Amino acid sequence: MDDEELGEILINIFLLHHFFKNHDFQYRNFDGRRKITFNHYLTLMILKKRKKLPISEIGRLTSVKKQNMTYIIDRLVEIGLVKRVPDMSDRRVVNITITDGGIKYLDKWQKAKTKDLRSFDDGDLKKLAALLKIFNSKLSKEE
To answer: What is the pTM of this model?
Structure first.
């Protein structure tokens, strides 16, 4: 594949990232609608997969500075999607875990957004899923 084709792939990946980053993630609770950002959503996804992590590790995985990560975590704690849990082996460390409410929010959001993917052919979606697994596998080995 030549550099021009690879460049086009990078542009398309960027456009997909841009779409999701600018997408409106709404969280509804007892006091109405609250907007959460892409980084809030990404944090929830990571915590759902990893169970518990210190803020510094979440920041590393999301490429967000620690001081910004603290703000993101504070917001998620405020609306009940994550909680702080002291580390039993090191009292200086505070881990972050996703709450049942956070898991329910992610599941509800994912279910709503899968409707957007239903307009694509099943064969194309299977190809995309296989390619994304390959990309994620190779990229995670490079970290």
So the answer is: 0.72
> Residue 19's pLDDT is what?
66
* pLDDT tens, position by position, 84-137: 999 888 888 899 999 999 999 888 888 877 777 777 888 988 888 888 888 777
Q: Per residue in 69-88, is it b (16+ CB within 10 Å) or e — as a string?
A: beebbebbeebebbbeeeee
Look at the domain 3-142 and name its fold. Answer: Arc Repressor Mutant, subunit A (1.10.10)
Rounded-to-integer distance, Cα 96 and Cα 39, Å: 15
3-state secondary structure of 95: strand
The 10 Å Cβ neighbour count of residue 30 is 5
Cross-strand partners of 78: none
Within 13 Å, how many C-alpha atoms sit on residue 25's CB side?
22
Domain ranges of the chain: 3-142
24 phi, psi to nearest 5 deg? -85, 115
